[in-house]
């Protein structure tokens, strides 16, 4: 049976890309602060960038803020990605950026919502509550999770950089546990591209895992530095989400194509 990351790797091979298109319909980018405008913005972005996307990452918060209409719009965006996948003959993974974190029946409900009701293939989760909080999302190996490990925000070090009794940093311990838990090839890690040293450290302790590495572009992360620090030896294992740098370009399709080509060029240089 296919696993989430074997599915992702097929798409990476099909489109020769490690670019993940973030779908973050900021109010400032919309004609009006409504679910309808968020939907229109998102659908245009999907249509223009689908050929170059290894994955799409819609951010649930930008849809949830509009209430029930926003939730319906999010479902329509995910359906539109499926339509583009069918049209091109290559399935594009959808990573729901929701950063959920809870236990027992609540986690079951979150998993049902993300995977069954919305149709996402993967979700971002906080591992702070422990293994049992992510288990409900791992039942089906075709569905994946990216666990928050070393995030790209300035305040990430308040907790994530705490040094534990054994000498490991807290985020390194998260990576070690994720590597151990990944028995179904459906667990990855969120490691910010703004933290290249952390990318290197996490790659050492989790050599096999896929990383979702936000922060290239608007947050100041450097593409070449991130690729050098985070790629696996097979030239994969690093998914680079870009949102504003593509969505706010005069031609989002061209911007996505140029980023994809830049990634390919850097990978060749790195050997």
SSE string, helices as H and strands as E: HEHEHHEHEHEHHEHEHEHH
Q: Which parts are unreliable, with pLDDT below 50 for 5 consecutive residues or more?
A: none
Largest sheet: 8 strands, parallel
Query: What fraction, in percent, of the residue positions are helical?
Result: 40-55%
Topology:
Blueprint (H helix, E strand, L loop, with lengths): L3 H12 L3 E5 L11 H15 L5 E4 L2 H4 L3 H21 L6 E6 L3 H14 L4 E4 L9 H4 L5 E7 L6 H4 L9 H12 L5 E5 L4 H10 L5 E2 L10 H8 L7 E5 L1 H4 L4 H19 L1
Parallel strand pairs: 1-2, 1-8, 3-4, 4-5, 5-6, 6-7, 7-8
Helix pairs in contact: 2-4, 2-12, 9-10, 10-12
Description:
The chain starts with a helix and ends with a helix. It has an eight-stranded parallel beta sheet with strand order 2-1-8-7-6-5-4-3. It contains twelve helices and eight strands. The protein has helices at residues 4-15, 35-49, 61-64, 68-88, 104-117, 135-138, 157-160, 170-181, 196-205, 223-230, 244-247, 252-270; strands spanning 19-23, 55-58, 95-100, 122-125, 144-150, 187-191, 211-212, 238-242. The chain is an alpha/beta fold. The chain has a single domain, classed as Aldolase class I (TIM Barrel), CATH 3.20.20.70.
Short description:
This protein has helices at residues 4-15, 35-49, 61-64, 68-88, 104-117, 135-138, 157-160, 170-181, 196-205, 223-230, 244-247, 252-270; strands at residues 19-23, 55-58, 95-100, 122-125, 144-150, 187-191, 211-212, 238-242. The protein has 271 residues and is of the alpha/beta class.
Name its key features.
globular, 12 helices, TIM Barrel, single chain, eight-stranded parallel sheet, 271 residues
């Amino acid at each position: 049976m296919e696993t989430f990351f074997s599915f992702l790797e097929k798409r990476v091979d099909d489109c020769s890309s490690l670019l993940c298109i973030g779908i973050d319909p900021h109010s400032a980018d919309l004609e009006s602060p409504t679910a309808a405008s968020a939907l229109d913005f998102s659908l245009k972005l999907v249509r223009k960038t689908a050929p170059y996307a290894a994955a799409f990452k819609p951010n649930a918060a930008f849809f949830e803020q509009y209430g029930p209409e926003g939730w319906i719009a999010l479902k329509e965006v995910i359906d539109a990605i499926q339509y583009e996948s069918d049209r091109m003959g290559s399935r594009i993974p959808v990573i729901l950026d929701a950063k959920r974190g809870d236990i027992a029946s609540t986690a079951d409900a979150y998993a049902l919502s993300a995977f069954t009701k919305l149709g996402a293939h993967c979700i971002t989760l906080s591992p702070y509550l422990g293994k049992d909080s992510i288990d409900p999302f791992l039942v089906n190996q075709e569905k994946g999770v990216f666990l928050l490990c070393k995030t790209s925000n300035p305040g990430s070090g308040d907790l994530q950089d705490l040094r534990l009794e054994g000498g490991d940093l807290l985020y390194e311990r998260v990576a070690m546990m994720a590597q151990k838990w990944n028995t179904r090839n459906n667990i990855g890690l969120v490691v910010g591209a703004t933290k290249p040293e952390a990318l290197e450290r996490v790659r050492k302790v989790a050599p096999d895992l896929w990383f979702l590495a936000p922060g290239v572009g608007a947050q100041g992360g450097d593409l070449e530095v991130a690729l050098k620090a985070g790629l696996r030896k097979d030239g994969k294992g690093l998914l680079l989400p870009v949102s504003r740098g593509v969505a706010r370009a005069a031609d989002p399709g061209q911007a996505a194509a140029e980023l994809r080509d830049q990634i390919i060029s850097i990978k060749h240089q790195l050997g």
